[in-house]
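Before the break, one more example. Copy the sequence into your notebook; we will annotate it together after we see the structure.
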Amino acid sequence: MSDTLAVPASLAVRNMLGDTLGRDVTVNVGNPLTQKDLPTATVAIYVDSYSKVVAVLGMDLKLAAFAGAALGLLPVGGAEDAIDDKELYPNLAENVGELCNILTGLLNKEGAPHVKLDRVVFPGESVPNDAQAHLLALGRRIDLSVEIARYGTGTFSLSLA
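Here is what the structure looks like once it is written out:
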């Protein structure tokens, strides 16, 4: 068994998001989330069986709102209103929280350490310092611009510890 996780390929991210959302999803190399994005970002913290942080996923408000709406089969207007209001409405947050749990599948591979979702930090909540450090660090990471068909485009950053 390998003791390290592998950064998922952009194709794996596209396929998992597309399959989960039931929509065409396009991914391109994107810019990483920055410190100024964190107050409105949705951040998922993944841990190993020893509760050690092993990966941190961040979605900017646009991607979280669009993905939450797409997963719930909600009209795009609700997501656009959330973006305009700079908050993730509870129904969208619930859906994107479930999506973060599903995205654990990007990290769990045969022969690799088991990873589980520890918690999701939603816009307006404080991202723990260790999670911030992982999410903003250089290194083993993937940063994508994700477009969800008929919804919109946002930023996806996944960083491994």
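The longest strand covers residues 152-160. The CA atoms of residues 110 and 155 lie 28 Å apart. Try to locate both features in your own notes.
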